[in-house]
Amino acid sequence: MRRTRLTLALALVAGSAVVGIPAAATPAQAADGDVIQLVAMNDFHGRISPQSGGDGSLVTATGPDNVYGTSDDVSQTVGGAANIATTLAQIRAGFAPGAANSFFVGAGDLVSASPFNSSVFRDEPTIEVLNALGLDYSSVGNHEFDRGQEELLRISGATDGEASDDVTACEGVTPEVDGCFTNSAGVPFEGADFPYLAANVIDDATGESILPAYEIVTDARGNKVGLIGVVTDDTPNIVSPDGIEGLTFLTEAQGIDQAVTDMQAEDPTVQAIAVMIHEGGTQTTGGYFNGCAGALAGTPIAAINAAITTEVDVIISAHTHVPYNCTLPDSAGNQRLVTQAGFYGKVLSDIRMTVDASGEINRTPVSAGATATNVPVLQGSPDPAIQSIVGYWEGRAAEAGSVPVGSQTADLDRAYRGGAPVRDAESALGNLVADAQLAYARDTDSLGGDDVDVAFMNPGGLRADINCLSTGPADPDGNINFGETFAVQPFSNTVNTVELTGAGIEQVLEQQWATRSGAASFLQLSVAGLTYEFNPAAAAGSRVDPASILIGGQPLVLTQTYLVAANSFLIAGGDSFAAFVSGRPGGATVVTGANDVDAFNAYVAGISPVSPPALDRAVSLDPAQTFDDDGSGAGPCNPPVPTTPGGGGSTPGTPGTPGTQPVANPGNGIAAGNLANTGAATGQLTALGAGLLLAGVVATAAGYRRGRGVTE
User: Fold this and answer.
1) Is the pLDDT of residue 664 over 90?
2) Residues annotated as region Disordered (predicted)?
């Protein structure tokens, strides 16, 4: 049964004006049955505050050429939790049957890979915001496992005591240090009010799903809808293995079909079924936020749609950060609605399903029995109650986040193409992070010191740019602060080293091309101490010529052993880079270093003002497929007169020397009461910031052992 509560979003509906929302078409047979509304979002990633640049804009119309994807497209500013509240209320105000017959659902990745003002508080701010918005249910996403399964169970308050959830909201953490923070109402963290669903994530100890597989919800008129939650079965390849030890990830279709069987065995009257699935697809050229260019052909979500039972009526998808509004034929040839709301709260999907007297959604070869409209979350009319919550957390984060780290001469960006970040091109920011990890490892004897040869950085580990433009009086043009560097790498990984053979390094480079989430992909690693050439048109497994690989300017020797630095996720084989494990010589072991953000901060402080590194480390030999950054992510920059490199000038307080160990330890010149590598006394930070940086990162990365194999 549905958990009922009077939410802020529901209370706001009556007084909300409907502004700028496309009308969601109601199926033609609406008069013959009740219409039920699902409003969906996905991949929010803790974006409680409005975002700037590409993260805060959406192409909403074509320009004079009437073609999407060209330079004259019209964009609007979108996103922010307070604007989500306004848009949600407007959508519900335009739904004639009323908010009591509407459910707000998510499709995972609501937390983690978040900005500083949420991530530094273990994403408890995002949970408070989602509770206030009245989120009813969500599937888990792969990022819900970033901090380990125990942390997922900790934040999932609504499921306490259900399935494998035996962890309460303040268990296993130190209040106000690494969890259980006081919220905007003055109350310690209580967890999510909404249940997370995880039908295909099996606890090996029980043989059952780690969280509930499904929920049966009932609207105000007695209509029932079955909601199922599943996550991509690629999750083991894209999260830290330690955090999911003891879990088995079934295929999405297995999880869905079993949940349907179990649900209808429990209540055979449940005929209308929607799946929230953290997996997705992409549109082809010419697609837009409410379109379906290419019909998702060849994508993981299209394959899942073809594989699952015909009992499922609606698929709410996620993961690929691409909005779309599609109908695809199921295995019986009947149309089925498949939607996605993009990412970062830019869009909400307004889904309307018509049920007949038996509770069934009548789908046919020409009708899905349901319709959807993707509604832009326009900035400009933020809900004051939600904004108050956001403002509380922004204030708490401001002191810690404003600590200066260094300075820059231009934007330090991820790779961009057509105004959007991409992961198949060399990036200045990725190269800078790789440089930082190599410098840190070479200056740390326990990691190998001067014997470290090369460093790698995965593009998916770069979650934000470091923009040069001022954000306010305390952040002038060219300033780099701790909040910005934390946002780039928010996962609390460590910088580790391990030996690889030359052949192993060559295989790592070849594995940039792999099948991930059921589709071919190219993830271009950032490298330091290494250059190479590649031919993307060559056959798989032979795209990188070993003779072109130079380490320290010398040709790679396949039989030689090299010492490699990378973050803890990548070095464990994450993102399907299995050669980081299989390419090790016999007896090689991983050596663990300090937090990746601390290592980066030390490097930035030591070389400020920082200029973007050259993009010349990986060169395509195919002029038709250069995989270059087109520079479209760069913004304006008017920094003050540069100071002397290495000294940090007046910008970063009293920075550490380049490459010093980024932890407070005897012998490295950093006192125990100081924030590593900024020289700032921890008294300048909140107790939270100091605790997370100096004490909490190991617990954050590993989770808390509760009998399911998570590293202690």
Assistant:
1) no
2) 623-668
